[in-house]
Design a protein that fits this description.
With 413 residues, the chain is α/β, with parallel strands linked by helices. The chain is built from 13 helices and 25 strands.
């Protein structure tokens, strides 16, 4: 969307990110990989109409943000994805975009394949019906090219990467606290963006897997360097510390407008806690791996207000509950919650020995592989290829730390 050159370092080269890069090329940008984690994007100051269908693979964040950005331009674009993405509803994004003037043709529920027609947008003041950084971001990106801009009212704060990124590219973004405690985010219209230098910090969601692995595996100590410490992304680390985790954050510094630091995790005796529901927006992707930590703790860990997990790449509440139960963990599934009762037995706190069905969900797969590292019997997950969606190199990294992961048509830890 910007004019000029953007150089990116530290990019997480997962399949979702690569699909997004391909989509930006389809909309007219020049996208070039310079080396590991280093990419260059030559923006044209806007989007051009794609010549072909834009295939976003499994990238739910990607397609929703791209639709918001594309809606601001006078073009028509058709989006599709893999079987998982085609099954995920897009209505929560399409609703505000439609109120701004975009039109579309889609399957029932606003599902892909979907053809979006943009341009001629009007202003909107949209109150999020549920916490969603994806919906917020789509509206803000559309608002850049809407007459009168856009406002998003956010009753519960969600991750604010889009607001920070827009400012880094020269956009004006205003944030104020309303009388009822909600955040009012305003983006004026008719804004232009300029290329910038972007250093991507370490992803807290990815860091969670080796850190929890260290916490539940006897004799372990792992340090993950350069992890993003944005306060809207660190709720998992706080929750683990409340569970008794020996989790130490050091070398805190500012990089690119955000705080980053190094996080060291050592094997710990964990205990169950009640996770405040208001933390859910700040750690919604981390609940499967938190549930693994809870399975290795003493007593129950109660997680509520997490209904958003049911509309991710899979129904993550159901799959987490099923996987843990198959491994011998006592777990109770609620409509918008999960209660995991750990036994905290010495050496091998859970039985394991299960083959876990992931329904193509990368986080379900990685969480249960981590559980296998501390289980009495190995844990196997199906569809190992999907892990590259968000964490290419996961198996190699965990193996390098001492984990025993066998790769076949399935993965066993």
């Amino acid at each position: 969307m910007a004019s000029g050159t953007t150089d990116i370092t530290g990019l997480l080269e997962g399949e979702d990110v690569k699909r997004t890069a391909q989509a930006m090329a389809a909309f007219g940008a020049r996208v070039e990989r310079l080396g590991p984690g280093a990419w260059r994007v030559e923006g044209q100051g806007g989007f051009a109409e794609p010549l072909d269908v834009v295939d976003c693979g499994n990238a739910g964040t990607g397609v929703r943000l791209i639709m918001g950005a594309a809606a601001g331009f006078d073009l028509s674009a058709t989006f599709t994805g893999d079987a998982s993405l085609r099954g995920r509803p897009m209505n929560r994004v399409l609703k505000p975009l439609g109120e701004m003037g975009a039109t579309w043709i889609a399957r029932s529920g606003g599902r892909l394949p979907l053809t979006l027609r943009g341009g001629g947008l009007k202003t909107i003041a949209y109150r999020l019906p549920e916490p969603s950084a994806q919906v917020k971001s789509a509206v803000l990106l559309a608002g850049l090219h809407a007459a009168g801009g856009a406002q998003v009212i956010e009753p519960e704060a969600t991750r604010d990467h889009t607001e920070r990124m827009l400012r880094a590219f020269g956009a004006k973004v205003e944030i104020e606290l309303m009388a009822d405690g909600a955040r009012l985010i305003t983006v004026p219209g008719a804004q232009t963006l300029s290329g910038a230098q972007v250093a991507v910090p370490g992803d807290p969601s990815s860091a969670a897997f080796p850190l929890v692995a260290a916490l539940i595996t006897p004799g372990s100590e792992v340090t993950v360097e350069g992890v993003l410490l944005n306060p809207l992304r660190t709720a998992l680390f706080l929750t683990l510390q409340e569970m008794g985790a020996d989790l130490v954050i050091s070398n805190v510094r500012d990089e690119g407008g955000d705080q980053v630091g190094d996080i060291t995790a050592r094997h710990s005796s964990l205990h169950g806690v009640v996770v405040p529901p208001e933390r859910a927006p700040a750690m919604i992707d981390e609940y499967p791996i938190l549930a693994v930590a809870a399975a290795c703790a003493s007593g129950p860990t109660i997680m509520r207000g997490i209904g958003e997990m049911r509309v991710k790449e899979s129904d993550r509440i159901a799959l987490t509950a099923a996987g843990l139960a198959a491994c011998g963990v006592s777990v109770e599934e609620e409509p918008e919650g999960l209660i995991v009762s750990g036994t905290a037995r010495a050496n091998h706190p859970v039985a394991g020995g299960a083959q876990v069905t992931t329904h193509g969900d990368h986080r379900i797969a990685m969480a249960h592989l981590v559980l296998g590292l501390a289980a009495e019997a190995p844990v196997t997950v199906d569809e190992p290829g999907m892990i590259a969606t968000s964490f290419p190199g996961f198996v190699e990294m965990m193996s390098g730390l001492g984990g025993q992961i066998t790769v076949a048509d399935r993965l066993t830890a």
